Please model this.
Amino acid sequence: MQLAVALDGAPAPIGATTFDPYGQLVKMLLPRAQSIAIYDRMGLPVWLNDGLDSPELHRILQDALAQDLGASGGGEGYAESIDRDHCAYVFLLRDPDARLIGAVGIVCRESRQGNDPRPFALVQGLLRPALECLQRELTSQYSIGDLQRSLLVRDRDLELLLGAAQDEAAASE
Model:
């Protein structure tokens, strides 16, 4: 399920890319995943799997993004137990300059009732290829958005210059 996201006034919005393949890949790599969410760097959901039934995941992702943006960043994510049968995994996505570009949150059903959830490093290792592809996708989308905004600004400047030149030519006749 793709969500339409409007980021008016926000830096470089994400295009109309569908993130369904990433969600499917995560589900294949981590079959116990019940809820999967992809958020942009502004803390807005850009993709949620069908049947997302975890408001707790939304809160966890919002908190993770807010803490990372307020701090120096650098973390890759963490695991947090939701209840005795479920664990949330948060993966922070960064561009090549280590700037936060988004986050992926996953709620998994843990089969080992009452035991500790799988270590974060293990789950991260399983998902690394999908997370790296998603990082590249988001970085590309933001770069394209930045270029589009730059071109719009330059087009407006050019229109102003052409309009001024036409007004000056008309005044000198």
User: Anything to note?
Assistant: The beta strands are 33-40, 45-48, 77-83, 86-94, 100-109. The first strand starts at residue 33 and ends at 40. Residues 1-13 have pLDDT under 50 and may be disordered. The radius of gyration is 21 Å.
